[in-house]
UniProtKB/TrEMBL annotation:
Record keywords, A-Z: DNA damage
InterPro entries xref list: ATL_DNA_repair, MethylDNA_cys_MeTrfase_DNA-bd, MethylDNA_cys_MeTrfase_DNAb, WH-like_DNA-bd_sf
Boundaries of every Methylated-DNA-[protein]-cysteine S-methyltransferase DNA binding domain copy: 7-89
Protein name (Swiss-Prot/TrEMBL): Methylated-DNA-[protein]-cysteine S-methyltransferase DNA binding domain-containing protein
Keyword DNA damage listed: yes
C-alpha cells in the first residue's frame, strides 16, 4: 500500500471511530468530510482493510442509500446486519429503514476537522 493511502486510511479510521453506537454514516460522507469527495470507494477499501482492528466500527458505514453493501466483508452470513440491529438500527431487505433517523453526518456532528 502506498504511504499516502495509509495516511488516508488512518484519517478514515479516525472518523469511523467517532460514529456513535446506533448510528450510521456513508462512505461518501466520510470521503467528503475528509476533503476527498470522489473517494467513497477508497473509504470502502479502508473499511475492508480494518477487519482485524477491533476499534473500527466498520459495520456502521453503509452506502448512500443505506444498503449494507459491505456485508460480504464480515464473517458470518448476516454479521453486519446483526451488529447494527444489536445497536437498535432497523433493517429490512439489507437496507436501513428510515436512514435519516440513523444517519450521522460528520460535517454536522464533528466540531473540528480531522
Amino acid at each position: 500500500m502506498k504511504p499516502e493511502n495509509e495516511n488516508f486510511f488512518e484519517r478514515v479510521y479516525q472518523v469511523a471511530r467517532l460514529i456513535p453506537e446506533g448510528r450510521v454514516t456513508s462512505y461518501g460522507a466520510i470521503a467528503k468530510y475528509l476533503g476527498a469527495a470522489r473517494s467513497a470507494r477508497m473509504v470502502g477499501w479502508a473499511m475492508n482493510a480494518s477487519h482485524n482492528m477491533d476499534d473500527i466500527p466498520a459495520h456502521r458505514v453503509v452506502n448512500k442509500a443505506g444498503l449494507l453493501t459491505g456485508k460480504h466483508h464480515f464473517d458470518g452470513t448476516n454479521l453486519m446486519q446483526q451488529l447494527l440491529e444489536g445497536e437498535g438500527v432497523e433493517i429490512k431487505n439489507l437496507q436501513i429503514v428510515d436512514l435519516e433517523k440513523y444517519f450521522w453526518n460528520p460535517f454536522t456532528e464533528l466540531e473540528t476537522e480531522i
